[in-house]
Amino acid sequence: MQILVRFAQSHQEFRIPELLSVAQVCGFELEIPSDADATRPFMVLDLPDEHHARLLARRCILIKAVSEFWATGATAEELHVAVKANEAAWRPYEHVSFKFLVGAYNQTISSAEQRARMESLRYMDFDGKIDLKHPELVMEWWEEYDDAGELSGLPRGEGKGLLRQIYFSRAIEDGSARTLVHKFDVKKRAYFGNTSMEAEISLLMANQTLASPGKLMYDPFVGTGSMLYTAAHFGAIVFGSDIDGRQIRGRGTEKKETPGVESAARQYGLAGRLLGCATFDVTRNPWRRGGLFDAIVTDPPYGVRAGAKRLGRKDLTKQRTSPVRLSDGILSHVKPDYIPPTRPYELADLARDLVRFARWALRPGGRLVFFLPTVTDEYAAVDIPTLEGMELVANSCQDFGSWGRRLITMRKVAQDDGERPEFPLEGLPYGGGGNGDEEHVPAHKGFRDKYFAGFKREEKEQLAASSST
Amino acid sequence: MVRLLTHNLLACHARNCTSNNFPLELRDVSVALREADYSEDFLRGFIPRLEWPALVQAAKQLGEDSLPEEPLDPATATEEQLKALHHVLLEVHIEEGSMVCPGCQHVYPISNGIPNMLLAEHELARS
Ligand SMILES: C[S@@+](CC[C@H](N)C(=O)[O-])C[C@H]1O[C@@H](n2cnc3c(N)ncnc32)[C@H](O)[C@@H]1O
Predict the structure, then answer these.
(1) What is the CATH number of the domain that holds A159?
(2) Shortest CA gap B117–chain A (Å)
(3) What is the pLDDT of residue A455?
(4) Nearest to A282 by CA among A270, A293, A271
(5) Does A333 contact B122 at a Cβ distance shorter than 8 Å?
(6) Pairs of CB atoms within 8 A across A/B
(7) What ranges do the domains of chain B cover?
(8) Residue A304 pLDDT > 60
């Protein structure tokens, strides 16, 4: 059956990866047509039946609605030709109660114009009664326009963009997963912080993990736990760790008080799926073995809100090799307020290490889902860390102008866990250098400095270079 | 909320502490029982990843003696056996206390149910 998917107007690059992940988690094969254009708000898919369309609508955050595709055309005349040609699809509905829904993207259609569109379909000659409240059939007429506002500086939908396409279909189901964006709204959460990930993205990430009952998922940079709640919502058992326990507990938490992450899990009724949290540096982690997790889902620190760090002294020659006894006779590190020293952790090293960690800690077939910030002008596909045994599944950019972040989904294809990885402070290659002989330095290296310099340095250099010639 | 499943997965990882670093000894622990969602698939899938004797030992120390000495077989375990395993693995929580490495004696304290598994400066590798 041909299904028309209508997307929400955000996160275009996440649309196809989400469809594919959700189909997989629901246990069916989905083939995206080779001419599908994810920048457009409508897509026609071939699905075994209506039930599969409903499954997608109930789990895809980016689906507004699914309907049975009846006809399309670049103009009204073309559309009517196509509707008439596909009479077999709609004739069976000629006697049921019905209503019409006329809508448009990037345009408002007046009610008079809407009526004219419905009238133009008179030839279908339906004799069921019109029922606006509980119709057995809803027929949808959607028009897609160019965003003229974008060109003219007017708000979206104002100004006359050109008509691109018209779709005519039979409504099946509205997307219900979008309401989760409100349920997981950070501002309504019992515990959140300035690093909390917005609900919509946390939900998209959870879908990329293939979260479902019986799976174990882990966030090694858990912070206030945003991704734990959405993965647990879809049934997974979740665990989080962070180098800074205050992120997990909340500042000023009293002894025996419920930690912040647990309070939020309780608020959502998900405490029974929160395996727990722990404080540690993921590069010095206490996991007894690899092959544990069905997914690792995380938003690593990339230095904009909270810089990445790892245990150790910046000046290694000053790093202690034996414990220190304080004047009161107690070893310094056993004091309850002891905090080990930390050093900066370069983002490019972190991204490489995260993939190496995942290669070991995931179960075969498990997924790594994480954000990688990129400087838009400098980004190259080779910036995604590559590693034997890990395969890239999806790479979706969320564009903020001069910088962006990419949601990377990888799958562990290796059947073994390999050796427990070490994360030395220096000397590991980045990999991913295209032909492999040369070391490729990823563009996100030094991202924090570039971010605060407003990504201007290169531009200045270019200016200087061009003015001197 | 250190459930016994978590305890079964954590080992001491101080520099040079590579043997006799598991299981961590439970010391001065206070325990709470709290319900967890039951998933048969999860339990069957996870049995091969458990260190069974360590689990039995920790459970006994906390007064739970419903587990057999021999590991369950994920393929043939009965629902009753899985329910008992579920209870021990996921419903027994350590709230306060500490976990101590049997080898190097590093003390990992647990407060608000969150274990502090950070290493001390002298326990870190220098490379
Ligand atoms: C961007 S925040 C994650 C925010 C989280 N998604 C949330 O919803 O709040 C990154 C977190 O990584 C932690 N972190 C930084 N370096 C780390 C390391 N080496 N190991 C573990 N956690 C680390 C920080 O303390 C911070 O909480």
Answers:
(1) 3.30.2130.30
(2) 5
(3) 58
(4) A293
(5) yes
(6) 133
(7) 2-123
(8) no
Q: How far apart are CA A212 and CA A26, in angstroms?
A: 9
d(CA A211, CA A227): 11
Query: Is A469 inside any structural domain?
Result: no
Chain A CB contacts of B118 under 8 Å are 243, 279-281, 284, 311, 340
Residue A466: per-residue pLDDT: 46
The answer to whether the CB atoms of B124 and A319 lie below 8 A apart is yes
DSSP string, A392-410: EEEEEEEE-SSEEEEEEEE
pLDDT at A187 exceeding the cut of 80? yes
Do residue A272 and residue B36 have CB atoms under 8 angstroms apart? Answer: yes
Instruction: Return the structure tokens found at A151.
Output: 């060109």
- Predicted interface score ipTM higher than 0.85: yes
Asked if B9's CB is within 8 angstroms of A256's CB, the reply is no
What's the mean pLDDT in A304-308? 65
Burial class (CB in 10 A: 0-12, 13-18, 19+), A9: exposed
Q: Ligand 1 centre from A223 Cα, in Å?
A: 5
Q: Are residues A317 and A424 in the same domain?
A: yes
Predicted confidence (pLDDT) at residue B81 exceeds the cutoff of 90: yes
Which residues of B are less than 8 Å from A256 in CB distance? 95-96, 112
